[in-house]
Amino acid sequence: MPTAIDVFAKVRGHERAEQLRAAREADLLPYFRRLEGPAGPIVEMEGAERIMLGSNNYLGLTADPRVQAAARDALDKYGTGLTGSRLLNGTLDLHLELEAELAEWMGTEEAIVFSTGHQANVGTLGTILGPGDTVIVDSADHASILDGCLISKAKLRPFKHGRLDRLEKMLGRAVEDGGGVLVVVDGVFSMEGDIAPLPRIVELCKAYGARLMVDEAHGAGVLGARGAGVSELFGVEADVDLRMGTFSKSLASCGGFIAGSHEVIDFLRVSSRAFLFTASGVPAAVGAALAALRIIRSDEGPELLSRVLDNGEYLSRGLESLGFRVVRGEPAITPIVPVLVEDDWKAVLLWRALYDAGVYVNVAIHPAVPPGGALLRTSVMATHDKAVLDRALDAFENVKQKFESEHGALPAPGA
Ligand code: PMP
């Protein structure tokens, strides 16, 4: 009888797995590095102290005693997990309070909390879109957006990052095709740190009758006077139909949300598979996110926001003055300060040199960025003080000289 080929055959000799193994053997793997202490501005990592320039803990609230106490209180009161879906035995007063306060913060009728941000995107796009619809995305949108679109079986139309002329063409074609049309963009792009030009995108969506969803993962807690994200920064909150956010950045926890109209959120509550068929966010995570949100919305919020953005500006200018090419977010600075390297291998070598010099950064190589777009994604926190950033800049300066003499020039500013 004929038998199936081994479904595991593809994992043997897989190019990516081989690259991973070779890099690990050479101790050049920038991924899966072990943290050995709290995720602060300076961390213990693999036996050494390193300046953390690779965290999304933008406001530093994972170390805030009030956020930690809220997590502990939730743990004490409700235990370690809820062992069930939000639909059944997995809803706490904490989930409901968090949803109500998120909706207030976002200025929407309602919000729904998912167990992760990834699930929020997948569980929303996979539910709200269907075959016959068209979803238009920026090519630099987060992977979870793509996953949700693919699950939905809607027609997926990516436009080249930032090219609104192409977005407009796609909108025209989508309308001709019939079916519903949704445009989905990241508010702040996670690798490049730049900001979606929402006012023009809103205009285009209105002109063509399309709905708009904005992923505020990296904008919420950072941009806008109330920290409500890029939609607030541009004053287009009322024109964005759905706003997604995550707790795994400024909100110092784990989980995600979608904010929007009663109608849509109620529909998701009873139809979203990524909401219904998974365990709800654990009490400690929900308690921590709620406490962090309350801090951001308190009188302390604006000070925290201005500190993280000021640090972003400081690091960005510092790196530029050392001769690095920084991809600067326009029109506003964000906490994400990407240093362009272009070549994947050079990015890994530069990462290693910085790591040895006591600075941890994230490496983004293809497919996380387009081919030839390798970068070191550095990011700052409100809790970095200038002396620590100066130490990091010193390390960059020292490493650059030696690196360029051995491996050739790095991209220069404005080149
Ligand atoms: N959207 C964006 C833009 C992100 O950067 C991320 C996480 N890096 C997510 C969604 C997913 O969020 P989470 O980590 O909560 O799953």
Automatic annotation (TrEMBL):
Belongs to the class-II pyridoxal-phosphate-dependent aminotransferase family. InterPro entries: Aminotrans_II_pyridoxalP_BS, Aminotransferase_I/II_large, AON_synthase_class-II, PyrdxlP-dep_Trfase, PyrdxlP-dep_Trfase_major, PyrdxlP-dep_Trfase_small. Its EC number is 2.3.1.47. Keywords: Aminotransferase, Pyridoxal phosphate, Transferase. This is 8-amino-7-oxononanoate synthase. Signal peptide: none annotated. One of its GO terms (molecular function) is transaminase activity. It catalyses: 6-carboxyhexanoyl-[ACP] + L-alanine + H(+) = (8S)-8-amino-7-oxononanoate + holo-[ACP] + CO2. Pfam families: Aminotran_1_2. The keyword Transferase applies. Its cofactor is pyridoxal 5'-phosphate. Residues 51-396 form the Aminotransferase class I/classII large domain. It comes from the Bacteria.
